[in-house]
Design a protein that fits this description.
Chain lengths: 651, 360
């Protein structure tokens, strides 16, 4: 019997002491293991935690026109984000923030709710590319709303309304497929690279090299200090051969139409203007294109993303007759050929009609060119045969890429007997040659290819490589894939090309096929064409409208001797070449006016200029293009400047 | 009776070690909360320690034997207070644990219940009249702790509920638990485990999963575990600048993870020093239990030993990755009024026992 005073077994108390000792030894071992044995591992992890490598994005190089006027610029674009600092009740601030950033409060609440399960260090992105007043809102509420933060990135600012969009192209994040290719091996995911156009072609020059900064960050991702910094190497600017004055004329000429215009200096291959329609707004890509907008662009039957100047492969129609004339002359057939046109002729048992149903009467080469007589060229084609036609056309670059310094150029088709067997395992039918004689049938060219071939004829056989960037502008050490200065000399009888170009000079005269395109005081030589083959999509669109079943073509240059500019126009659904000719002459007129030091569109003395990316204040229709930045105003001197300096906006 | 009670027998040495731990705690709270919204918490902690000291001296004056005679009333009051939490309690972070006091303070009754349970268990075993524990005693003692434990579990507050358990275990062990009984109970508990798993809340399951496999959900529930391990591990032998703590990677560095924060800043040497202080305190307490005037006194002091060592085991175990995250603070160091006051009142009871060691 024992009561309250009975002592508890001291063995058990001692046992408790030993148990506690063991527990503490285990805990001490735990500390030893972490702090001494695995210290290296955890010290590294702690460092990885608090030190963040923040990339410093290199601004891309500007893109200038031949006179140094800015076409593509960068602008600092700010994105608004919420740091999830636990000291703030985000939901309580959400309404204020939504109001300041012009967002739907519901959307902000929803965004915050979605992020509740995400790790704290991940900020909530609220809005990309915020406007200046939204930025001012964030700046002025730094104390009241410390969780609201911004990050800045340089974004591309492209000309608006799709001006020059196809030539310039656009940038985007490098894709996984691209990273697997050897030429992109130095790029990292998330890098912004050129996806099309000049942006893609000269990405290596434009891109620059990203720097990085090691920053001390807390668990909420807020930077609390900086350790060191490797500055970014900005991309180099490039100067295109394009003249913005001519580009404006080309864009305006094509407004509301489908097709392409390309203008070149035939002496050296410098592209002076290049426009394709319909167009797209590359600024949509520079932020983040919506899926709907992308689908719209990709599924549009008019193919707005296609640069038709270098990618549309279509039958050249009657413009091909210039190449026929050249082939015929070199073979000694064309200059002596006389035919009687009564509105058509029968070849190989089939009747081929002339576009003038009543016939041209007696026709020789000159009249055949300016009146575009089909029967003459049917006969010439019959006499030449397809292989001789192909020989001369191929020499002038038809059916091959011109080598222009733009990505994804199409090669077109110049048929021959050998071509037919190779591709169709079929013999060439002589009757097919007759269609080729007037630029129909299997022959297909791109506008730039056709222009280059006719430029070679106008220059007495000088075949240049079209290019948008002069090789002299390339930085030293830049590895070129093609040589744009390479000029081929095609043997042409001087009498032949002078005869042909003189005949072309009559096309815009009253006796020619495009008198309405004539501009007094400017000697333009050219050739119209209307091709029966239109893209299937366009045919479907204009199924009820017979007039739109044909593509209008025109290739023209000025002056007739020693030309300085050659323009090719593809007017899809334009029915007749004379309509295409009117578009071409607008560009030629802009060139001639400029040479004559008449005020250009830009230097018109309006006080403020809007060229390329140098944007004015928001446009009248209330469309702000979604940008609060980059509306640059450029003062333009009212006085007419000498040509060399007639470049407003030139720094 | 007061004739025999003297502050000469007050355990000043124990108090010095306890205050050393508190001092390190206040220092670490200051360091961890500087430049955060909790800045100044160390001052509040000092007030709590002051209040705790006052409470301790006050408690040491009461006669624990008289207290034990009335303990059934206090026990009923404890159950009632837990009941009132279930009915009137403030819901915060998904659990009803607090009662809002008129002064604006929040009161967490489950802490005080711990104190009462120590007394109740001491009373039960002190009155037991045989050397060996019968199953009836086992069940009765288990019920004394089990009822309030289930009520706290229902709040739900698994962490605090678990801290009741060592009181019962210590009582049973010292009360004469037989090896066979212990084995049977362990076996039963083992069989109950799968059932208990089903009863756990999803966040509690997450904690257990992330304890076993912290990498499974690095940013979710595993985050705290990983960040705590990084904090402790990066401290090294001598400690460092404490970036885990100061850049707020370490969650709640002033309360549950204060030992991790301390270990990061003061390294293995510093952390070991703290463990040593706790060990000294516990050894000193056990020594006091041995010199207690009666069985009840021993049980009271050993109840405090049980609670304190359990807290240290679970909290430090969690920080070094041996235990899952349970939300149990480190007594005397962690910031928080309830926890500090409980510890000092518990020490008051120990002093109470010690000061009466020469009575009779």
């Amino acid at each position: 019997m024992f009561g309250r005073d009975e002592k508890i077994s001291s063995i058990r108390l001692t046992a408790v002491q030993y148990i506690i000792l063991v527990i503490f030894m285990i805990l001490a071992y735990g500390l030893w293991r972490l702090q001494v044995m695995q210290n290296d591992v955890y010290a590294q992890l702690a460092e990885k935690n608090r030190i963040r490598n923040v990339p410093i994005l290199a601004p891309r190089g500007k893109i200038l026109d031949r006179e140094g006027r800015t076409i593509v610029e960068n602008y600092p674009s700010f994105s608004a984000l919420l740091l999830r600092d636990s000291t703030r009740d985000l939901n309580a601030d959400a309404d204020t923030i939504a109001q300041g950033l012009h967002l739907d409060p519901k959307e902000v609440h929803e965004r915050i709710r979605k992020f509740t399960s995400m790790p704290q260090y991940q900020p909530i992105f609220l809005k990309d590319d915020i406007t200046q007043d939204e930025l001012a809102f964030i700046e002025s509420h730094k104390n009241e709303l410390p969780e609201l933060d911004t990050i800045m990135a340089h974004r591309r600012l492209y000309p608006r309304s799709g001006f020059m969009a196809h030539l310039i192209g656009y940038v985007g994040e490098v894709t996984e497929d691209m990273l697997n290719q050897p030429q992109f091996e130095l790029y990292n995911p998330g890098d912004v690279v050129g996806i099309s156009g000049v942006e893609k072609q000269y990405n290596q020059i434009l891109m620059g090299k990203n720097g990085s900064r090691r920053a001390l960050v807390n668990s909420r991702g807020r930077e609390v200090g900086r350790l060191d910094e490797t500055p970014a190497v900005p991309g180099r600017q490039i100067r295109l051969t394009v003249d913005v004055d001519l580009q404006i004329a080309a864009e305006e000429a094509m407004a509301g139409k489908n097709g392409a215009i390309v203008a070149m200096d035939p002496r050296n291959g410098e592209i002076l203007a290049m426009a394709s329609r319909p167009t797209f707004n590359p600024n949509d890509f520079s932020v983040r294109i919506s899926r709907d907008e992308w689908n719209r662009l990709v599924n549009d039957p008019d193919k707005p993303l296609l640069n038709k100047a270098i990618q549309a492969q279509l039958a050249p129609g009657s413009t091909f007759k210039i190449l026929m004339s050249f082939a015929g002359w070199q073979e000694g057939i064309a200059q002596t050929l006389h035919v009687h046109c009564n509105g058509g002729g029968t070849f190989y048992g089939r009747r081929f009609g002339c576009w003038v149903k009543t016939g041209h009467g007696a026709v020789e080469l000159e009249k055949a060119i300016y009146q575009s007589c089909d029967v003459f060229f049917y006969t010439l084609a019959e006499k030449l045969g397809i292989d001789r036609i192909a020989k001369y056309a191929t020499a002038l670059g038809l059916g091959q890429k011109t080598g222009i310094d733009l990505p994804n150029e199409a090669s077109g088709v110049m048929p021959s007997e050998e071509w037919k067997i190779r591709n169709f395992k079929q013999k060439w039918f002589a009757g097919e040659t007759i269609s080729v004689g007037i630029g129909q049938g299997a022959v297909a060219t791109t506008p730039v290819q056709l222009m280059r071939a006719i430029a070679a004829i106008s220059m007495g056989g000088r075949l240049v490589v079209p290019h948008v960037l002069n090789p002299t502008e390339l930085p030293p050490g830049y590895v070129e894939t093609k040589r744009y200065t390479e000029v081929k000399s095609i043997p042409i009888d001087p009498n032949g090309w002078t005869f042909i170009t003189d005949a072309m000079g009559r096309v815009l005269l009253p006796e020619g096929t495009a008198p309405s395109a004539h501009i007094p005081g400017i000697d333009i030589a050219g050739k119209t064409g209307s091709a029966q083959i239109v893209s299937l999509a366009l045919r479907a669109k204009h199924a009820n409208n017979e007039d739109f079943a044909q593509n209008g073509w025109f290739v023209g240059f000025t002056p007739r001797r020693n030309p300085e500019i050659i323009v090719a126009v593809l007017f899809e659904g334009g029915e007749h070449g004379k309509l295409a000719a009117r578009l071409a002459t607008q560009v030629i007129k802009a060139y001639v006016d400029k040479q004559r030091r008449l005020p250009t569109k830009i230097a018109g003395g309006a006080g403020k200029a809007e060229i390329g990316a140098l944007w004015n204040a928001p446009s009248d229709e209330g469309n702000r293009d979604g940008l609060g930045f980059g509306h640059f105003l450029v003062e333009v001197p009212k006085t007419t400047l000498p040509l060399a300096a007639a470049a407003p906006g030139m720094n | 009776m007061s004739r025999y009670v003297s502050y000469r027998d007050f355990d000043w040495l124990l108090l010095i070690f306890v205050l050393m731990i508190c001092g390190l705690g206040v220092m670490e709270i200051h360091s961890a909360t500087e430049h955060t919204k909790f800045a100044g918490a160390h001052i509040k902690q000092l007030y709590w320690v002051g209040a705790g000291l006052a409470g301790m001296f006050l408690f040491s004056l009461l006669n624990y034997q008289a207290m034990l005679d009335k303990v059934h009333w206090v026990y009923i009051a404890a159950i009632a207070s837990l009941m009132s939490v279930m009915i009137f309690g403030q819901k915060y972070l998904g659990a009803r644990r607090w009662i809002k006091m008129p002064g604006g303070q929040h009161f967490q009754p489950s802490e005080w219940v711990k104190l009462i349970l120590i007394l109740a268990v001491a009373k039960y075993f002190a009155d037991m009249h045989q050397r060996e524990l019968t199953w009836t005693d086992f069940i009765k003692a288990g019920a004394i702790v089990g009822v309030p434990m289930l009520m706290v579990l229902a709040q739900p507050d698994l962490g605090t509920a678990l801290t009741y358990m060592p009181i019962a275990i210590m009582g049973l062990f010292l009360g004469g638990l037989r090896a066979k009984q212990a084995l049977i109970v362990l076996l039963l508990a083992g069989l109950m485990m799968p059932l208990a798993w089903h009863k756990l809340k999803p966040y509690q399951k997450d904690r257990l999963v992330s304890f076993v496999e912290p990498e499974a959900d690095k940013q979710g529930s595993g985050y705290q575990v990983i960040q705590s391990l990084i904090a402790v591990g990066s401290g090294g032998l001598w400690g460092g600048t404490g970036t885990q703590t100061h850049l707020s990677y370490l969650p709640v560095p002033q309360t549950d993870f204060i030992f991790a924060a301390f270990a990061e800043e003061h390294g293995f040497i510093g952390a070991l020093g703290v463990l040593l202080l706790y060990f000294i305190v516990l050894m000193r307490l056990t020594q006091n239990a041995q010199t207690a005037p009666d069985r009840a006194g021993t049980f009271v002091v050993m109840g405090v030993v049980a609670v304190l060592s359990f807290h240290v085991l679970v909290n430090v175990g969690m920080v070094v990755g041996f235990m899952p995250v349970t939300g149990i603070p480190l007594p005397l160091m962690s910031y928080g009024g309830s926890s500090v006051l409980f510890m000092f009142l518990a020490l008051g009871m120990v002093m109470n026992v010690r000061m009466r060691r020469f009575v009779n």
